[in-house]
Amino acid sequence: GKKPLRQRVVDELKHYYNGFHLLWIDTKVAARMVWRLLHGQVLTRRERRRLLRTCADLFRLVPFLVFVIVPFMEFLLPVFLKLFPEMLPSTFETESKKEEKQRKKLNAKLELAKFLRETIAEMAKRNKADTG
Fold first, then answer.
1. Which residue ranges run through the membrane (predicted)?
2. CA 127, CA 132: separation in Å to the nearest integer?
3. Widest CA span in the chain
């Protein structure tokens, strides 16, 4: 059934708290990585990707904070997320959104693979016709 309004508000506040907490942890880890970079150490591929993701999240945080700070603006957040799906920092995404995003990426990769397979088959037919 539908949750009471109080429970939904509490759940949203917990979601924001957890998102900011995770972003804070990512920021601290990224600061250590930058410190290591400045002292001449090399980052692994995984560390580099995490650093880039954290930097992108910090840049995305600025427009997101407008929705959190301005009263009643959070009601417009779903509209803006529909228009700009990548606006939300990664630490604020729910599991269902992450799974949906992975599904879309997989479908796009499958479509690309199908297109490339058809293109190669067409090229093979042309080459066979040219040589025949």
1. 58-81
2. 8
3. 75
Q: Which of 96, 86, 74, 76 is nearest to 13 (CA)?
A: 74
**For residues 13 and 74, what is the distance between their CA atoms, to the nearest angstrom?**
12
Instruction: Output phi, psi for 84, to 5 deg.
Output: -125, 80
- Mean pLDDT along residues 93-103: 83
The total number of residues shown for the chain amounts to 132
pLDDT (0 to 100) of residue 52: 95
Q: How far is CA 68 from CA 73, 77, 95, in A?
A: 7, 9, 21
DSSP state of 3: P
What does each C-alpha distance from 29 to 9, 53, 65, 106 come to in angstroms? Answer: 30, 12, 22, 30
What are 56-72's pLDDT values in tens digits?
Answer: 999 988 888 888 788 88
Write the DSSP symbol of residue 13.
Answer: H
Q: What is the pTM of this model?
A: 0.64
Q: How far apart are CA 106 and CA 13, in angstroms?
A: 32
Residue with tokens 């900011």: 20
